[in-house]
Amino acid sequence: MQLPSFAPWAWIPIVIAAALMQTARNAAQRSLTTELGTLSATLVRFLYGLPFAALWLSVVLQFLPAASPMPQLTLGYWAWLALGAVAQILATAFLLLAMKERNFVIGVALAKTEVLQAALLGMVLLLEVPGFWPIVAMLCASAGVVMLSLPKKPPTQNPSALPDSAVPWLGKVAMAGLASGACFALASVGYRGAALTQPGVSPWLIGASGVLLAQLLQTLLLGSWIAWREPGKWVRIARAWRLSGLAGAMGALASIGWFTAFALKTAAEVKTLGLIEVIFSYAVSRKLFDENLSRAEKLGLVLVTVGLFVICAQL
Questions:
Q1: What is the DSSP letter of 150?
Q2: pTM for this one?
Q3: CB-based contacts of 229, cutoff 8 Å, min separation 6
Q4: pLDDT tens digits for 154-199?
Q5: Residue-wise pLDDT tens digits, 280-292
Q6: At the N or C end, where does the chain have fewer CB atoms within 10 A?
Q7: Residue 194 CB burial class (10 angstroms; 0-12, 13-18, ≥19)
Q8: CA-to-CA distance for 293 and 109, rounded, in angstroms?
């Protein structure tokens, strides 16, 4: 038995599955943030994800055709991988900060400004220029993200006199969400760049090995920082192993999906379809956290959905 080859459309179910796993991971991490703090909750997804990433790599190696080329861990590969790994640490920390302050789905939506940023960074760093329909899909879906991020009631006073949560595009919540989007975009481009250094290598193996190496690096970097600044947090991280294990498993599965997809399509296209996570997050917020959305936010979800259909239909 061997792993199947990839059809031109194979990246679509991979991205959808990754977005679903990422939604579950975000929900678990949101609870851990209150218990452990932002940095420790960020570490959890990498630390507890390592066993699952290692298991998946062993499965891939087991069922990979015997003649398949192995990844070449060149300096260029490590440079792109390190860029993606560090950016992902920052992106996850900023996202958790945003989700602590406002509606769960809105925190995720603010971070999803990464799509246009990923397209821009992909053009600058990787020379990958999106086609017409992918651009239409990005713009439509990004407009939906903006609608999701608007305040439920227009401010009627001087913005400087309003609480931070009433001016979402000017306050710290917006800055955290937008910073998360920028770092996620940089991480996506970094991982895409790492994948492009491995021509001829199976996307299954690119995804499996890339995630394991990235999470090892992330665990070492962030774990060392926490051990230096807040050594007592390690005991609390160990005690929270049940929820942390869930967050780690979902995070590893999501990362495997993203990394595999980056070996097949551009970062901009992958992250545009990845906006389906906003819809998943809406479902989670309604069912798990009992949060409601305004008309503008629902219109935003419709625009995001249209963008998803466009990015899939252009194949």
A1: S
A2: 0.84
A3: none
A4: 544 444 444 444 444 556 677 788 888 899 999 999 999 999 999 9
A5: 777 766 655 566 6
A6: N
A7: buried
A8: 12
CA distance 254 to 277: 11
Single out the residue of 86, 63, 20, 93 nearest to residue 251, CA to CA.
20
* Residue labelled with tokens 């070996």: 263
DSSP per-residue string spanning 199-259: TTS-HHHHHHHHHHHHHHHHHHHHHHHHHHH-TTHHHHHHHTHHHHHHHHHHHHHHHHHHH
Q: Helix, strand, coil shares of the chain as percentages rounded to 5?
A: 75, 0, 25
What's the one-letter identity of residue 92?
A: T
189 in Cβ contact with 121 (< 8 Å): yes
Residue type at position 261: A
Retrieve residue 58's tokens: 């062993």
212 vs 218: CA distance, rounded Å: 10
17 half-sphere exposure, CB direction, 13 A CA radius: 14
